[in-house]
Amino acid sequence: MTAEIWFYHLQWQPLEKILPGLIEKSLERRWRVAIQARSEERLQSLDSWLWTFDEESFLAHGRAGDADPELQPVYLTTGTENPNGAAIRLFVEGAEISPALAGPGAGYARAVALFDGANGEELAVARAQWKELKEQGFALTYWQQGDDGRWEKEA
């Protein structure tokens, strides 16, 4: 199976506001989720955020080193592994997409790169990854937040 690859250009809301909704929608589809960041610091921040983002809710998840990663509905990592059999992989902080799609346990239904349009480094990395994946023959879709915060398909 070849993954659909979507690029989400964040403009009006930060990752922390977007991520819980994407995870919840994925879990509603009965898709397990893997989230890949470039740094342990960002992973630690997401780890804390997913437990506390809502006073009445949380998103159960695990990280490398936690017991029973194969049972986690959401798995956080800086590597390319997929121990929970995730169907969707979310890439944040400019994490490399291509190696994860070729790694063991790949076979995702969807891969999503989320990048902050106001962050020059993340924007440059997203453009470079788009070009690399396009050259590798992947079908790509670009989504941008409209003025109302809704996602609009641009390419």
General description of the model:
With 155 residues, the chain is α/β, with parallel strands linked by helices. The protein has one domain: Rossmann fold (3-Layer(aba) Sandwich). The protein has four helices and eight strands, in the order βαβαβββαβαββ. The chain has helices at residues 15-28, 40-52, 98-102, 120-135, and strands at 4-10, 33-36, 62-63, 74-77, 88-91, 110-116, 140-145, 151-153. The protein has an eight-stranded mixed beta sheet, with helices on both faces. The radius of gyration is 15 Å and the shape is globular. 31% of the residues are buried. The mean pLDDT is 90.
Brief digest:
This protein has about 160 residues and is α/β, with parallel strands linked by helices. The protein has four helices and eight strands, in the order E-H-E-H-E-E-E-H-E-H-E-E. It has helices at about 15-30, 40-50, 100, 120-135; strands at about 5-10, 35, 60-65, 75, 90, 110-115, 140-145, 150-155.
